[in-house]
Design brief:
Number of helices: 16
Number of domains: 1
Radius of gyration: 19 Å
Largest sheet: none
Structural class: mainly alpha
Low-confidence stretches: 1-5
Oligomer: single chain
Mean pLDDT: 82
Helix content: over 70%
């Protein structure tokens, strides 16, 4: 049982944050979370998450991961083209506006900063290539998210009007994501042997910080979650289907490009996984009135970890 807890402790943590925040009838937990959110708590946490992520990345592996250009390009196409197209198709389904916005947020996200790389290695894939895809995807996201998200939001029908400030989002992502990530990576490059001693601790700290930002966002969306009822089940099916389609497309890509074992894993995992912290910070900043969007982001993260964890064993 202890091994199972160690393996899935982050998922267990997400479930506990969800249950404690929503089930607290006194609203003490959620009121603290809302206070922190109002005082720029999520902004501070997101900067720390990406700064520590830069310290965790393996600089030597990044340098050696640029060799397989075919796999890198395939993963980036899935992240920035295929996922938004699938998101647009899902957006055509008659659903609550908050759910549609949540799907769009997930669709435009870059790849994860840690779990995808770890799963790539566990499945026998090229971790160096996965790291390169991670850096490129999160760097390009500064420019792609405002444009693609704006295009997707134009598909939201009805009387709801959602407008986003593209330059402001670019600046926000650059300041909160790219700058701390590059700063952490620069420190890691110049003090690699020293920083390697703290990698495991930083990974654990990062996961606790992700739980903290989920809690603050969940506190804000508590009422929307309680009023959603059966929608949670529908959201579960939607995000399961969304990630399943991404995995299927990635599998087709690797087959078409003849990327065999050792080369296909990074395309499959990095192409399909989506980062959670950035989607939450955008939901909190841009769409706080759509609490169901947060539910979509969190549920997708939980489900894609479970699905990909199973896939690791199959590919291995």
């Amino acid at each position: 049982m202890s091994d199972l807890v160690k393996k899935y402790w982050f998922l267990i943590g997400l479930l506990l944050v969800f249950i404690v925040t929503v089930a607290d009838a006194s609203e003490t937990v959620s009121s603290i979370g809302r206070w922190l959110k109002m005082h720029r708590g999520p902004d501070a946490v997101i900067v720390l998450i990406f700064f520590f992520s830069g310290l965790i990345l393996n600089a030597r592996q990044i340098r050696s991961g640029v060799m397989d250009l075919k796999g890198i390009v395939a993963a980036l196409i899935i992240i920035f083209l295929v996922a938004p197209v699938i998101g647009a198709l899902f957006g055509a389904i008659p659903m609550d506006t908050g759910v549609i916005i949540g799907i769009f947020l997930v669709a435009v996200m870059p790849t994860t900063l840690s779990s995808g790389v770890v799963m790539t290695g566990a499945a026998g894939g090229n971790m160096a290539q996965a790291l390169v895809i991670t850096i490129l995807a999160n760097g390009l996201a500064v420019f792609t998210i405002p444009v693609v998200l704006s295009l997707l939001l134009n598909l939201v029908g009805g009387s709801t009007v959602v407008v986003i400030d593209k330059p402001a989002i670019m600046i926000k992502i650059g300041f909160y994501v790219l700058l701390p990530l590059c700063t952490g990576l620069a420190i890691k490059i110049y003090a690699e042997s020293f920083m390697d001693r703290f990698v495991h601790g930083l990974q654990m700290l990062n996961q606790f910080l992700i739980l903290a930002i989920v809690w603050m966002a969940m506190s804000q969306a508590r009422d929307a979650i309680l009023n959603s009822g059966a929608l949670v089940g529908i959201i579960f099916l939607l995000v399961f289907s969304f990630h399943g389609i991404l995995l299927a497309v990635a599998g087709i890509f690797t087959g078409f490009l003849k990327l065999g074992k050792g080369r296909r894993e990074s395309v499959i995992f990095m192409g399909g996984q989506k980062t959670l912290p950035l989607s939450i910070i955008l939901q909190v900043s841009l769409f706080p009135q759509y609490g169901l969007a947060l539910v979509v982001c969190v549920l997708h993260h939980m489900i894609h970890l479970l699905m990909d964890g199973y896939l690791v064993g199959r590919l291995k």
